[in-house]
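Translate sequence into structure tokens.
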Amino acid sequence: GWLRQSRGAKPKAIPFDEFQSILSKIRHAFTAIPAGKGLLSHCNDVMRSEPAFINLHSNKELYDAIVSIRAFLHDSIAQPTKCKQLVLGHPHYIGIDDASGHGVGGVVLGERDAVIPT
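Result follows.
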């Protein structure tokens, strides 16, 4: 990967589109791990400038951020985030049922409030 390539004798640059794609996947992962979002600040700085290529070997802060993100994601596997940490407060809608059994329609179940069809 990127980290090994940036330390070699001839460091390779990462195309912006590839970096953007991977960063989107990391952001998606951090939806379930809210504490990780703070690690993205250096990545966001690079994304704002939109360079054609990203060089980890010349940007120590970005390199360190990628190393930290990688370690954080590996560590998070051991302790999954509980649903209670992701959903704030008590949910108004408590379930969905596939009424037809074929995945084409369903019923949303409300605990206290009526669910008005749209």
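Note: The chain has a mean pLDDT of 78.
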